[in-house]
Design a protein that fits this description.
- It is a single chain.
- This protein has about 150 residues and is an alpha/beta fold.
- The chain has a single domain, classed as Rossmann fold, CATH 3.40.50.2300.
- The protein is built from five helices and five strands.
- The chain has a five-stranded parallel sheet, with helices on both faces.
- About 30% of the residues are buried.
């Protein structure tokens, strides 16, 4: 059985490490691919730049996206994801430290699937990662690929 990947777009290496360890604890077999800025996320998703040989039809099962990113911010990445026919149905979860109402509203206006604030506490952060992985990758039924 092939497991679709998770794209983690996060520039904080401590959060990346914690998220990967939390995913491992869930027992999920999905590979986690990490990019550290919004430009690299777009290159990965749309097979440009260093990812020009990647198969664009191999979309992730889930995108975890920070808002405050170098190069291209998370909201801009979300907008591009939603505009592309191959990625528009991929679940996107914002995982950020921002609790600003304008950020929350802007992401939902761009059809984000979920908005989660990163807790400061290590255990709480790991718990959130495990819960979202269980929901989006075990319980949720993904949309079929667009035709």
């Amino acid at each position: 059985m092939e497991f679709k990947s998770i794209l983690l777009v996060e520039d904080n290496l401590s959060d990346v490490d914690l998220a990967i360890r939390a995913f491992e604890k869930t027992g999920l077999m999905n590979p986690v691919f990490v990019v550290e800025d919004g430009k690299e996320a777009l290159d990965y998703l749309f097979c440009t730049g260093q990812y020009f040989k990647r198969d664009q039809s191999d979309t992730p099962a889930l995108i975890l996206l920070d808002l405050k990113l170098p190069m291209v911010d998370g909201l801009s990445v979300l907008k591009q994801v939603r505009l592309n026919r191959l990625t528009k149905l991929v679940p996107v979860v914002i995982l950020t430290s921002s609790n600003e109402e304008k950020d929350i509203a802007a992401t939902y206006e761009c059809y984000v699937n979920s908005y989660l604030r990163k807790p400061v506490d290590f255990t709480e952060f790991a718990n959130i990662i495990q819960q979202l992985a269980n929901y989006w990758l075990k319980l949720n039924i993904l949309s079929p690929k667009p035709q």
